[in-house]
Amino acid sequence: SQDRIAVIVGSLRRDSFNKKLALALEKLAPPDVSFAYLPIDDLPLYNQDDDATPAESVTRLKDGIRAAQGVLFVTPEYNRSIPGVLKNAIDHASRPYGQSAWLKKPAGIIGVSVSATGTAMAQQHLRNILANLNMPTLGQPEAFIQANEDLFDADGNIGPHSQSFLEGWMRNFIAWVRAFAVATGKAG
Ligand code: FNR
Q1: Distance (Å, rounded) from C-alpha 177 to C-alpha 82?
Q2: For residue 5, how far is its CA from the centre of ligand 1 (angstroms)?
Q3: What sign does the dihedral 154-162-12-40 (CA atoms) show?
Q4: Which of 13, 29, 43, 92 could form a disulfide with 33 if both were Cys (CB 3.0 to 4.6 A apart)?
């Protein structure tokens, strides 16, 4: 059967390295796995007053998460944390209280920076948030990636230096998602 992964990219930048990374990872996924990119650029700023009357974009985000077997966060690091646009999306889909779309969805975290820290500190902050949302999050392998000339080839595939590492990362992430599908009786 087809496994659907909801992908949330934490950058709205047109030429985002993280968007490129997500698209390249999709090509490393097994053929029975599909990526569904959930847009977050049209979400309003979260306001608890609107919980009872969510914007259409919020309902769409929550439906997209619920329809997926797992969630992949591909995010840059902004000032040693996750970008505000990503936190805004996470907060939206976590509410109203008791109706979080994130609950028990297995998750993976990955990201690319222009600096050598490779989004490590943003990833640790995100782990803290996902723990609160009760999302079982892949612990190992960790992937801290720096954008350099050979990260991607001319066709947008992962370049030769990182290919086998990221192939292995994807294999572990998909196995993680599938293990939780079995645990909750949603396999097959
Ligand atoms: C950054 N950048 C950055 N990089 C990093 O490794 N650690 C950091 O704390 C920050 N902080 C930061 C703050 C803000 C507001 C911006 C705009 C950028 C640089 C970041 O790695 C770079 O802009 C990436 O290109 C962002 O990812 P996308 O948009 O290419 O996916």
Answers
A1: 23
A2: 25
A3: positive
A4: 29
Query: Can you give the residue ranges of every domain in the chain?
Result: 3-183
DSSP string, 173-187: HHHHHHHHHHHTT--
How many Å lie between the centroid of ligand 1 and the Cα of residue 69? 29
Structure tokens at 82: 């996750």
Whole-model pTM: value is: 0.97
Q: What does residue 126 show for φ and ψ, rounded to 5 degrees?
A: -65, -35
Residue whose CA lies nearest to ligand 1 atom number 18 = 78
Nearest to 33 by CA among 143, 155, 183, 181: 181
Q: What is the dotted CATH code of the domain comprising 3-183?
A: 3.40.50.360
Ligand 1 atom with the shortest distance to the CA of 115 = 6
Q: Give the span between the Cα atoms of 129 and 10, in whole angstroms.
A: 14
Give the Cβ contact number of residue 172 at 10 Å: 16
Q: pLDDT tens digits, residue range 36-75?
A: 999 999 999 999 999 999 999 999 999 999 999 999 999 9
Distance in Å, CA 24 to ligand 1 centroid: 19
Rounded CA separation 85/79 (Å) = 13
Pocket flag, ligand 1, residue 11 (CB < 6 Å): yes
- Would the CB of 12 count as within 6 Å of ligand 1? no
Distance 182 CA to ligand 1 centre (A): 37
